Amino acid sequence: MISLDGTTPINKTNKMTNLYETDFVEWTIKQAQALKDHNIKALDWDNLKEEIEELGKEQINAVHSFLKQIIIRRSMSLYV
Protein backbone atom coordinates (compact mmCIF):
# COMPACT_ATOMS: atom_id res chain seq x y z
CA MET A 1 0.00 0.00 0.00
CA ILE A 2 1.28 3.48 -0.88
CA SER A 3 0.83 6.56 1.33
CA LEU A 4 -1.18 9.61 0.36
CA ASP A 5 1.91 11.34 -1.01
CA GLY A 6 2.48 8.31 -3.25
CA THR A 7 6.02 7.63 -2.09
CA THR A 8 6.12 6.05 1.34
CA PRO A 9 4.75 2.54 1.76
CA ILE A 10 2.24 2.20 4.57
CA ASN A 11 2.29 -0.99 6.56
CA LYS A 12 0.71 -2.15 9.78
CA THR A 13 3.81 -1.21 11.81
CA ASN A 14 3.70 2.37 10.53
CA LYS A 15 0.00 2.57 11.41
CA MET A 16 0.64 1.24 14.92
CA THR A 17 3.54 3.65 15.45
CA ASN A 18 1.30 6.46 14.26
CA LEU A 19 -1.43 5.35 16.68
CA TYR A 20 1.16 5.16 19.47
CA GLU A 21 2.05 8.80 18.81
CA THR A 22 -1.50 10.09 18.37
CA ASP A 23 -3.72 7.98 20.68
CA PHE A 24 -1.72 6.12 23.31
CA VAL A 25 -4.79 4.67 25.04
CA GLU A 26 -6.14 3.19 21.81
CA TRP A 27 -2.66 1.86 21.02
CA THR A 28 -2.52 0.05 24.38
CA ILE A 29 -5.97 -1.47 23.80
CA LYS A 30 -4.95 -2.75 20.37
CA GLN A 31 -1.64 -4.10 21.66
CA ALA A 32 -3.37 -5.90 24.53
CA GLN A 33 -5.87 -7.43 22.11
CA ALA A 34 -3.07 -8.53 19.76
CA LEU A 35 -1.29 -10.19 22.68
CA LYS A 36 -4.51 -11.86 23.82
CA ASP A 37 -5.14 -13.15 20.28
CA HIS A 38 -1.48 -14.20 19.82
CA ASN A 39 -1.44 -11.95 16.75
CA ILE A 40 2.30 -11.41 16.43
CA LYS A 41 2.00 -9.45 13.19
CA ALA A 42 -0.22 -6.81 14.81
CA LEU A 43 2.27 -6.00 17.56
CA ASP A 44 4.23 -2.74 17.51
CA TRP A 45 7.46 -4.35 18.68
CA ASP A 46 9.64 -1.23 18.96
CA ASN A 47 7.20 0.79 21.03
CA LEU A 48 6.14 -2.24 23.08
CA LYS A 49 9.78 -2.87 24.00
CA GLU A 50 10.23 0.75 25.05
CA GLU A 51 7.08 0.76 27.16
CA ILE A 52 8.00 -2.47 28.96
CA GLU A 53 11.49 -1.13 29.70
CA GLU A 54 10.04 2.14 31.00
CA LEU A 55 7.50 0.29 33.15
CA GLY A 56 10.33 -1.59 34.82
CA LYS A 57 12.25 1.64 35.42
CA GLU A 58 9.15 3.32 36.86
CA GLN A 59 8.65 0.45 39.30
CA ILE A 60 12.28 0.63 40.45
CA ASN A 61 11.99 4.41 40.90
CA ALA A 62 8.76 3.99 42.88
CA VAL A 63 10.42 1.51 45.25
CA HIS A 64 13.45 3.80 45.70
CA SER A 65 11.18 6.76 46.42
CA PHE A 66 9.11 4.76 48.90
CA LEU A 67 12.20 3.51 50.72
CA LYS A 68 13.62 7.03 50.84
CA GLN A 69 10.41 8.31 52.44
CA ILE A 70 10.49 5.50 55.01
CA ILE A 71 14.10 6.35 55.93
CA ILE A 72 13.35 10.08 56.18
CA ARG A 73 10.25 9.57 58.33
CA ARG A 74 12.01 7.05 60.54
CA SER A 75 14.99 9.41 60.99
CA MET A 76 12.70 12.31 61.81
CA SER A 77 10.79 10.28 64.39
CA LEU A 78 14.03 9.38 66.14
CA TYR A 79 14.96 13.04 66.60
CA VAL A 80 11.56 14.39 67.58
What does this structure look like?
The radius of gyration is 21 Å and the shape is rod-shaped. It has one domain (12-79). It contains three helices and no strands. The protein has 80 residues and is mainly alpha-helical. The relative contact order is 0.09. It has helices at 12-22, 24-36, 45-79. The mean pLDDT is 87. Helix 1 packs across helix 2 (24-36).
Secondary-structure blueprint of this entry?
Elements: H1 12-22, H2 24-36, H3 45-79
Helix pairs in contact: 1-2
Question: What does this entry show, briefly?
Answer:
With 80 residues, the protein is an all-alpha fold. It has helices at residues 12-22, 24-36, 45-79.
- Compute the number of structural domains: 1
Q: What overall geometry do the principal axes of the alpha carbons give?
A: rod-shaped
Cα separation of the termini = 70 Å
Q: Give the helix/strand class.
A: mainly alpha
- What is the count of DSSP helices, taking H or I runs of 4+ residues? 3
- Total strands: 0
Average per-residue pLDDT, rounded, comes to 87
Radius of gyration: 21 Å
List unreliable stretches of 5+ residues.
Answer: none
Roughly how much helix do the residues carry, as a percent range? over 70%
Main sheet overview: none
Strand content: under 5%
Order of helices and strands: HHH
Quickly list its features:
single chain, 80 residues, mainly alpha, 3 helices, 74% helix, rod-shaped
